[in-house]
Structures are given as C-alpha cells and as structure tokens.
C-alpha cells in the first residue's frame, strides 16, 4: 500500500472540514475521490502534502501513511522529497516564465532504476507543450496551463501523483484530451490519486472511486474502466453505488467555473426541489433560491416568517436535487459580521455555489422586509464588514459571494413595494457595490436598475465596478423585454435572474383544478401530456435507485423469512 488515510479529520479554526476520511491507494493504481464542491476534496489533498494554510489555524488529525511513513505533522517540503507530486486546483503556474522554464523549475532526478521523466519524455506525452515551449505561461490557454501543471508534476519523478480538480473550467474537448493523457499515464503504471467532481471523467480515469459525501461510499471498478460496466462493493464501505446526475449529486459546474469560462448565467428563481428540477429540464444553466418565493411557499406571505435553520435546510435539499449550481439569496446574512459569517458558512456547506449578501437593514429572514417596514439600510461600513465576513466564511469552498445593495430605490414597476420606495440613489449604490468588491466579493448586484431605459446606469456599473456583475431580474414593458442578453453582455453583465417558476406553477395549478372542478373528473389534467418523461403525474426525478433499494430490502426480508421457516421445520423434525 503506497498511501493510506485512516480516520483523517481536518479543521480550519473551529470549523471541521474532513470527518474520519479513509482512503487507500495501491502501487500503480488509479483512485478517484468524487464529490460535490465544498465537501473537502481539496482539503484532503492539501492534508496529504502538508499544504494547509497555517494562517487559517488549520489542523489535521488521524493517520496519513505513505510507504509506511507517517506524514501528519511533517512540513510540506519533506513530504515532497519523499516522492509525492501535487497538481493543485487552480493551476498556479509561473506566468512570467516560459513553458520550458516552468518545467525545468520542477525537475528532480529519478532514483536509480526508475524510468525517468525528463523534458523529452514529457514533450512526448504533451506535444502541444513542445510547440509552445517558448511561450510565457500566462499566454497559454486554460487547457494548456492545466497540461503544464500535470507535466510539471511528472518532472518531479514522483511515486505518487495527486491531481486536484484538473477538469475545472475547461471545455469538453480539452477534458477529453486530459482523459486520454490520464489513460496513457495509467498504462505507464503511474500511481494517481484524483480529486474530481466530473462524474464521467472520474470514472473513466480511475479503477476505484470513493464518493465523498456525508457517508463513506466507495465504488470499485472491476471492468478496466467502462463507466457502464460492473461494480462491486468495497469492504468497509456503506454501499457500492454510482450516483448519476439528479440523484443527490453535486452541480456539474460551479458558478466560478462558468464565469471564468465566459459562460453567461441565467438563473430562474426557485423555491423547492420540484421547481429546481423543472428549471434543469428546460435547459437553464443555474438556479437561484428566492427568499420571497420560499416564504410564499412555506407561509403564504412574505415577512420573515421562517428562520435560518429552515433556510439552510431548504438550501441543502434543493442543492442536492439538481445538477445545476445553486445561487442563494442570503438577504442581509443576519445583519452583523459574526452572524453573516456563521450563516454564509453553513449555506456554503449546504451546497450553495454563490450567496448574495445585501445592505437591507430589516432583512427577509426572521425579522421582516426592510421595504415593508421602512427599516432602511445598513451603514456602508457595516455592509462592507459583512461582505468581508461572508468572503472569509466561504474560503476553502467553491462558493463565492455577491455583494448586493438595495439602496438605489425605484426600479421596474413589477417589483412592487421596492419600486415605490425611495432610496439613496445610484451614486451611493455604486459606491457601496465598490466597497463590496474591495471587501472581496467576486460579484456585485445593484437592485432596482432593472427597468426600461436602464442602459446608461448599466454601462456605468460595468465600467466603474470591478469584478462580475449581476443584473437583478428580467422584466418586460408593453410586451417587449426591457433588455436583451446581448445588451447585458455588451454592458458588462455576466449573470441575470428572473421570477417565473412560482407564477408558472400557480397558473398551471389553477388551470388544472378549475377544469377538474368544473367537469367533476380528472380527464382534463390526465390528458395533458405536456412532457412524456414525466408520466401520469409530475415526476421530474428518477426513482430507479429507490425502487432498486426497496427490491433489495424486500428480497432480503423474504430470504430471512424463508431461512426462519426452514429452521423451524428442522427443529420440528
């Protein structure tokens, strides 16, 4: 056994990230740890190589043994010298050095008798790097930079190669090419431990796959790498399963990955698992948990009539029901930095890929809406401190923070009470958004700019506020959309939301129920086959896994019953 993790726990301060992780990697094996963003895959990798940030008061307990030697407590340089190469998430190349210089920086002579990785052999595996040998690292494409990081790891001539999220933010054609490279390394008996969220890539690149979630799942590959092939449970694991999209699995992409890839994000507002799944079936690329729609669905009226425990609970359920990344409307996060820190941290742990934190004094969770109760706005300095706390809370996860200010006032008539309310104006809104960006928020949003004729303000926002920009809800006036996606892109916006799920669901329910009530039967609703995948009733989720589980336990129950009857017959005779 070349690597063995036994009961590994990892902490950032008082926050525990890893809980009793057990992983085994044999010599010349390829093993993957698969899981959604934020479950601790990167933390596990950093724990192995001793690369957790001491400034974050990190701590690792349990045992990590490499070739029989204990690694916990050793400094990173001593672990690297033992023959472990780490390809980190985010690439981290030297942008001002050439491709060749990046590779030579990592060169380490092979041990006697080893088939050495040198520049010639690396270029044979990565011919594109040979073509770009004199290019500065910063001029390489994202896929080429990822190839460079893997090649740099091989130049260390490691006995064990750790690959952390190497498909992140890459186009499918590049991911396919990386898959071919990993397959080549496997044929050359390179020992690999891979952390990944791309299910298809992970299963094709590994012989054995651990699923990191809330329980220690493991899948052993017995067919040489065919994702559709047979599998058998690993001793000590709870079950041998392969989770597919929509079966309590993570988002296929993160919000950050999509933004870095230049993908425009359209996130309809959702309020439960069914609405989230409907959005996914329609082809959108993200979802946004609306606090107001959740309030309507839970209590019938808005006004903060639910608490943070319920909101976090809803976040976890919705994030686990869809393959789309979830943005969460975090209201004011609780109003003070420590409350914001705690609530944002828990939302990220629940599966949120982005969280908006606003400057509304009232907030919408547990204390009523500011625009309904004239509570006003937080002081700008407090808002900035809250954003900094939110950013700190999601460090180490794939979640990012949206600094949202509601202080502009006015806006589209469709926003109701908010549009009728006076604010502090666009100048103050831009100032606050910039404070949010300076505090570390990667995305900013100014509420109430969504109205016909908003072009001038939007152009200013795109020009004067750094980072990514979120347009708050599409609206239409006189049968024409107030803005188009092309306009938003030109103005410097990368994200947009809209409220349609609850209105559409309510309209459909009223239509069905009125007709059924009038006809005194269900012919109307049952004959409306609007989507054959959903059947007689609206079933947007697959039940195959649960049916198989039920059949398994039913069969076992029958087996126990027959065994008992047989024993009774034996006793009688």
Automatic annotation (TrEMBL):
Entry-linked CDD domains: ABC_TM1139_LivF_branched, ICL_PEPM
Domain of life (superkingdom): Bacteria
Pfam families for this protein: ABC_tran (PF00005), PEP_mutase (PF13714)
SMART domains in the cross-refs: AAA
Database matches in SUPFAM superfamilies: P-loop containing nucleoside triphosphate hydrolases, Phosphoenolpyruvate/pyruvate domain
Domain ABC transporter: 3-239
PANTHER family in the cross-refs: ABC TRANSPORTER ATP-BINDING PROTEIN (PTHR43820:SF2), HIGH-AFFINITY BRANCHED-CHAIN AMINO ACID TRANSPORT ATP-BINDING PROTEIN LIVF (PTHR43820)
Family, per entry: Belongs to the ABC transporter superfamily.
Identification of the protein by name: ABC transporter, ATP-binding protein
Species of provenance: [Clostridium] asparagiforme DSM 15981
């Amino acid at each position: 056994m070349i690597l063995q993790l036994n009961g590994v726990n990892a902490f950032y301060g008082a926050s525990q990230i890893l809980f009793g992780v057990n992983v085994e990697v044999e010599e010349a094996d390829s093993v993957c740890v698969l899981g959604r963003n934020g479950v601790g895959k990167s933390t596990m990798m950093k724990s192995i190589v001793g690369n957790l940030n001491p400034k974050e008061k990190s701590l690792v307990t349990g045992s990590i043994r490499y070739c029989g030697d204990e690694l916990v407590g050793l400094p990173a340089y001593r672990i690297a010298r033992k023959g472990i190469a780490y390809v980190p998430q985010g690439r981290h190349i030297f942008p001002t050095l050439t491709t060749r210089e990046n590779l030579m920086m990592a060169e380490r002579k092979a041990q006697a008798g080893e088939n050495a990785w040198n520049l010639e052999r690396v270029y044979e595996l990565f011919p594109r790097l040979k073509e770009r040998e004199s290019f500065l690292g910063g001029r390489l494409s994202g896929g080429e930079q990822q190839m460079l990081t893997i090649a740099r790891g091989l130049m260390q001539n490691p006995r064990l190669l750790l690959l952390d999220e190497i498909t992140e933010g890459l186009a499918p054609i590049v991911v396919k090419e990386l898959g071919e490279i990993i397959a080549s390394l496997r044929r050359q008996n390179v020992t690999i431990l891979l952390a990944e969220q791309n299910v298809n890539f992970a299963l094709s690149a590994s012989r054995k796959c651990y699923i990191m979630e809330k329980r220690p799942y493991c899948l052993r590959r017995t067919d040489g790498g065919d994702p559709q092939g047979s599998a058998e449970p690993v001793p000590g694991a709870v079950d041998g399963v392969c989770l597919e999209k929509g079966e309590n699995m993570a988002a296929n992409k993160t919000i950050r990955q999509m933004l870095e890839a230049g993908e425009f994000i359209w996130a309809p507002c959702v309020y439960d698992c069914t609405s989230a799944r409907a959005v996914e079936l329609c082809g959108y690329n993200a979802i946004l948990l609306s606090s107001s729609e959740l309030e309507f669905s839970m209590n019938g009226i808005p006004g903060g009539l639910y608490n943070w425990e319920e909101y976090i609970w809803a976040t976890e359920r919705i994030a686990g029901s869809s393959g789309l990344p979830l943005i969460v409307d975090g209201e004011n996060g609780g109003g003070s930095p420590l409350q914001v820190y705690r609530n944002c941290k828990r939302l990220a742990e629940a599966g949120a890929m982005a969280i908006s934190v606003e400057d509304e004094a009232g907030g919408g969770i547990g204390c009523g809406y500011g625009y309904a109760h004239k509570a006003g706005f937080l002081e700008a300095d407090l808002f900035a401190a809250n954003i900094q706390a939110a950013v700190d809370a999601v460090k180490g996860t794939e979640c990012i923070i949206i600094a949202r200010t509601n202080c502009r006032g006015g806006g589209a008539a469709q926003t109701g009470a908010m549009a009728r309310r006076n604010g502090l104006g666009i100048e103050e809104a831009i100032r606050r958004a910039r404070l949010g960006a300076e505090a570390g928020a990667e995305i900013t949003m100014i509420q109430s700019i969504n109205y016909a004729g908003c072009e001038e303000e939007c152009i200013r926002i795109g020009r004067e506020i750094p980072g990514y920009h979120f347009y708050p809800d599409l609206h239409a006036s006189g049968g024409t959309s107030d803005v188009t996606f092309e306009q938003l892109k030109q103005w410097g916006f990368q994200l947009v939301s809209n409220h349609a799920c609850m209105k559409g669901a309510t309209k459909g329910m009223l239509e069905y129920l009125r007709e059924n009530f009038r006809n005194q039967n269900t012919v109307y609703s049952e004959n409306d086959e609007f989507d054959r995948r959903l059947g007689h009733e609206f079933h947007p989720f697959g039940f195959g896994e649960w049916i198989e589980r039920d059949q398994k336990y039913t069969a076992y129950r029958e087996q126990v019953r027959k065994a008992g009857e047989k024993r009774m017959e034996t006793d009688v005779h």
